[in-house]
Design a protein that fits this description.
alpha/beta; D-Maltodextrin-Binding Protein, domain 2; 2 domains; four-stranded antiparallel β-sheet
Length: 418
């Protein structure tokens, strides 16, 4: 069945080269961050008025819309998107036959994070994104926990035990806001699993992801990851399996948890909730020993459908986004993002994005390699294994799989890659 799906996908992508893009006159942008939908539509409306180029934003993301599935449907339609989003090498390889190669665009010289392949530039970095263990500084201070000490498993174990013992006095439900159920495989099988791929390693060290793509597993690193995941699941909210993205973020925003396993893309949610506490990031304890960095990268890229009738309009849109005051204001102040362009001087006011800037300036970042795994591997193969382990933890061993089986199943999935 897997081979049949791969074949069908390749056949579909191969046929796309023969299909035209959206009708000339309307620039269609299909993007995957539902949390910036309103801000992006407002910016694009203003850009359209200024340039005279008609443009439309379509958004798909979160729990209710699978972007990759919908993207395939969009690319089969008569009105195909002119600009769409890929994530890493896996996304590029799937759609490379229809992706436009940039040449001479000014924004390329303004960033070090463009997507390249074989010397060509194909992707415009949407934003610098990062995640660590987001924390409520007020709760940690009240509990006597210094976030600077949270660099290893033992420190987190002590912190979580302290929070558990003081739940009533602190007014919290649990130490950690975490999700591992249906619809949140991107949290577990992509973001959490990236700890296996890069935690504790130099950002240029691709040895673990290279081995994974060749079917080679590092069992010692899988064991380290399992120890960390076990701790997160043990001290998470009761909604670990039943909750969705809104539940996870909502619990943290309401002050019901001290930590959240999410990235700075939740800033719009925190601002909408009107949080009145200080936040920051601490490293994940996903590798043995000391962990001194959070996960930082430009994981998503806008690419242009080379079969579009609006290629030049799409290039202008991206150029204006990177090179104008209006574009900078949208990225930083409206969409609450950390731009990947050196010419941007605005500093985000959004709380977690401001924290990310501090880690970036300190040069403390582990790489994002999860998007360089085979397409679908993290969410479709790794995600369900996390789900089963979460079931085991929350049912006191009555359901799911234990830690040893968690490691063994992950190892088997990696070794099945060819």
């Amino acid at each position: 069945m897997k081979k049949l799906l791969v074949v069908l996908t390749l056949v579909l992508v191969g046929t796309l080269a023969a299909c035209g893009g959206s009708d000339e006159g309307t620039l269609v942008i299909f993007q995957n961050k539902i949390e910036i939908d309103d801000a992006m539509k407002d910016y694009v409306a203003g850009w359209s008025e200024d340039t005279g180029i008609e443009a439309e934003v379509r958004s798909c993301g979160g729990d209710s819309c699978g972007y990759q599935t919908q993207l395939l449907a969009e690319l089969q339609a008569d009105d195909q998107p002119d600009i769409f989003v890929i994530e890493g090498m896996g996304g590029f390889l799937e759609y490379q036959d229809i992706i436009f190669e940039f040449d001479g665009d000014a924004w390329i010289d303004d960033t070090a994070l463009e997507f390249t392949h074989d010397g060509g530039v194909y992707g415009f970095p949407v934003a610098v994104e990062a995640w660590g263990m987001g924390y409520n500084a007020d709760i940690l201070d009240a509990a006597g926990i210094d976030p600077d000490d949270l660099t290893n498993l033992a420190a987190y174990e002590a912190a979580f035990e302290t929070l558990e013992a003081q739940k009533d006095s602190l007014g919290i439900d649990a130490a950690v806001s975490m999700g591992a159920g249906t619809g949140l495989a991107w949290v577990t099988g992509l973001h959490n699993f990236n700890g296996y791929l890069s935690a504790g390693l130099d950002p240029s060290d691709s040895s673990v992801i290279d081995d994974l793509n060749n079917g080679i597993a590092h069992e010692d690193r899988l064991q380290d990851l399992a120890d960390w995941v076990e701790l997160l699941f043990m001290y998470s909210t009761d909604s670990l399996l039943e909750g969705n993205y809104d539940t996870q973020v909502g619990d943290f925003a309401a002050g019901n948890t001290a930590f959240i396993h999410q990235g700075n893309w939740i800033d719009p949610n925190l601002l909408d909730a009107g949080i009145d506490f200080e936040v920051g990031y601490a490293p994940h304890a996903a590798a043995s020993g000391e962990n001194d960095s959070i996960f930082i990268g430009a994981p998503s890229y806008y690419v242009i459908n080379k079969n579009s009738d609006n290629v030049e309009e799409a290039r202008q849109y991206l150029e204006d986004l990177a090179g104008t005051e209006e574009g900078h204001n949208y990225m930083v102040n409206e969409a609450n993002m950390v731009p990947a362009f050196e010419s941007v001087t605005l500093v985000p006011a959004a709380p977690l994005s401001a924290a990310v800037v501090e880690w970036v300036q300190a040069g403390k970042g582990y790489a994002w390699w999860q998007n360089d795994m085979p397409q679908g591997f993290g969410m479709e193969q790794m995600g369900p294994i996390y789900d089963l382990f979460a079931q085991y933890i929350k049912s006191d061993g009555a359901d799911g799989i234990d830690k040893a089986e968690f490691v063994e199943q992950m190892k088997a999935e990696i070794e099945s890659i060819d």
